[in-house]
Amino acid sequence: MSKVRVLVGTHKGAFILTSDGKRQKWDISGPHFAGWDVYHMHGSSVNPDRLYASQTSGWFGQIIQRSDDGGQTWGPVGNQFRYEGDPGMHLFYDGSQRPWEFKRIWRLEPSPTEPDTVYAGAEDAALFRSTDGGQTWTELPGLRDVKGHLWQPGAGGMCLHTILLDPANPERIFVAISAAGAFRSEDGGRSWLPINQGLYSGGELPDPSAEVGHCVHNITMHPSRPNVLFMQKHWDVLRSDDSGSSWHEVSGNLPSDFGFPIAVHAHEPETIYVVPIKSDSEHYPPEGKLRVYRSRTGGNDWEPLTKGLPQNDCYVNILRSAMAVDTLDQCGVYFGTTGGQVYASADSGDSWSAIASNLPAVLSVEVQTLP
Amino acid sequence: MIRVQLPYHLQTLARVGREVELPVEAEPTIGSVLEALEAAYPMLRGTVRDQVSGRRRDFIRFFACGQDWSLEAYETPLPEAVVAGREPFRIVGAMAGG
Fold it and tell me: Which of A28, A72, A347, A370 is 20 to 30 A away from residue A171, measured at CA?
């Protein structure tokens, strides 16, 4: 019978939730790396027992942990993230120039084809790659050539938080950076193009043709259709049907188009999920009602999913990396909150239940579907 | 042997107790103790000082013999009581909330 493993990174450690394919009864292991921020954990699809974790701390810096037995045991691997050459300066909040300075890893993305290759998204924004299972890391500095001096931090820092690897084309990579925008490489990360045409950020970025400077919160794709991208921007939900070359808004009837994560159904490439948040000043759900919104039409027409979710006095946030899906026949959807709950739906979002209720604030959720 | 005391999170990372003992050459300095620590426990590289710049992390402090040595140069020799092993060299995570 199939098994599901949910990898939860929190503000005070990592937790691994496991269940059989019914997804009714869950075991929780952890905390792993207790007391540390775990920004992200991710498993290799080539070798699902190989997991990576970004363990980080304002005191002690960045550690990368690797497990080769599905998270039962862990060991630190390489943690030297050195920018190539002189990275120069970038914009700061106040418009001044600041030097590039490594702070932490937000995202770990194992290659879908090469078991020892893994990518890491850094703050200050950069993309690193390891081809030896995380022992050594090399920056792909061409990304910064795309007007890096004009990138600036979002409220959470100047972070490269999203990495999408095209499963059909190993040379194609998408990344997203707050607050710089989305970028695409067609040559394995050597050179990059900004893909922000159609993003409108009038409140923060008056120039509608600005190539960089957009606060992209998350992008996603269905692996069978890598030319179609969905984006949750600071404000606005958008889609692209041409690999990001142009975008159009699909916020439609959402109660708020501010939010952080966006996910796509495992078997229905036009079914997408967002969690509307009231505003960038109030990082909680509108009306205190925790609602996932689902569109079965690739955007514009959205329905609230509320069964099993708190519908009053709920003031948690759902961060950008904290929603994921499994690939069982009846697609499972999962998300974690800053209140320490992890909610799961085993029926594509129709109904939900808390599979963990009292964890530290959840920073990230990833799901592995195991044989 | 130099006795080095570690903050809790570095103890768990290195899988050691509160104190480790490190062999250091005849005239140990702050820097040579850190080098010996990182050589004996490679997983601690980057946790006390930045791997690229070599700079002490902002929330790390060094104490010995009741005094703060954090702002001293890495070349600074350690006090005789630390060299003799009567006092530990303490690496401390600054107290802060969160």
Answer: A370
What number is the average pLDDT over the span B20-43? Answer: 94
Contact yes or no for A194/A147 (Cβ under 8 A)? yes
pTM: 0.96
Chain B's closest residue to A64, CA to CA, is: B43
State both tokens at A271: 């079914």
- What pLDDT does B98 receive? 56
Q: Does A76 touch chain B (CB under 8 A)?
A: yes
Chain B residue nearest residue A13, CA to CA: B9
Residue A112's closest CA among A67, A161, A170, A73?
A: A170
Of residues B61, B97, B74, B84, the one with CA closest to residue B3 = B84
Pairing of strands B2-5, B89-93: parallel
Q: Which amino acid is at A7?
A: L
Count CA atoms closer than 13 A to B50's CA, side-chain side.
Answer: 15
In the structure encoding, which two tokens stand for residue A262, read together?
């966006």
> Is-contact A151 A142, C-beta < 8 A?
no
Can you tell me the distance from the alpha carbon of A141 to that of A138, in angstroms, rounded to the nearest whole number?
9
CA distance A213 to A201: 9
Residue B97: what pLDDT? Answer: 63
How far, in Å, CA of A112 to CA of A235, rounded? Answer: 31
Residues 6+ apart with CB under 8 A from B54: B74
How far A130 CA sits from the closest chain B CA (Å)?
Answer: 17
B-chain residues within 8 Å CB-CB of A60? 7, 9-10, 13, 47-48, 57, 60, 93
Average pLDDT over residues B72-98: 91
Question: Chain A closest CA to B57's CA: distance in Å?
Answer: 7
Nearest residue, CB atoms, A59 vs list B12, B43, B59: B59
Count other C-beta atoms under 10 Å from residue A246's C-beta. 15
What is the torsional sign of CA A155, A249, A279, A335?
Answer: negative
List, run by run, the mean pLDDT of 10-residue segments along chain A (371 residues). Answer: 95 98 97 98 96 97 98 98 95 92 97 96 98 98 96 93 96 96 98 96 82 96 97 97 98 98 98 96 96 98 98 98 97 98 98 98 98 92
